[in-house]
Amino acid sequence: MSRTTRSLWIALGALLFTSLSSPAHAGHDNKSFDPDNRKQAVKGFNLTTKGKGAMEWGKEQLERSVITTSWGGGDIEVHDYKTTGVTWAAQTRCKNWNALWTSCDVFTIQFNTAHHHTDFQWLTMGCHEFGHTADLGHRKASNDTDNNSCMRSTTAAHYKFDKHDLNAIKAGT
Length: 173
Fold this sequence. Notes:
Elements: H1 3-20, E1 39-45, H2 49-63, E2 68-71, E3 76-81, E4 90-97, E5 104-112, H3 119-133, H4 163-172
Parallel strand pairs: 1-2, 1-3, 3-5
Antiparallel strand pairs: 4-5
Helix pairs in contact: 2-3
């Protein structure tokens, strides 16, 4: 193998290692669950009435951003599960990464029905989890001083994306 070929393989390997070794958690700085495009199809599976409402509200919040949504399958799958022994109320995961692991082709949102939630908390969870599908991470008091974002890591958060969230989605997708 020539010196040039070996150098190219080393550079390619370093690039792949760097891109694959980044953490797969959501950050509000757009370094995480990037959607594969700005058109997302949403489909619910075995949802309770409250889970369906949370899904519809989350989809509506995405519509306020640069992301357009439709009903059907393929991009965001939403489920209700009863998962005991855990503290989380809902979670979002990337089910299928693209070939280079740079964006997510299919997201899975899971609402945990083992915990009791008010109607307001269901709306907040829907907004929050759909926010993760738009590359939003958690907000803290230090970067949500007016406490009006659903991306706070608490079920007492606001139930909508705020202007900061909408701008972050626009910049990151």
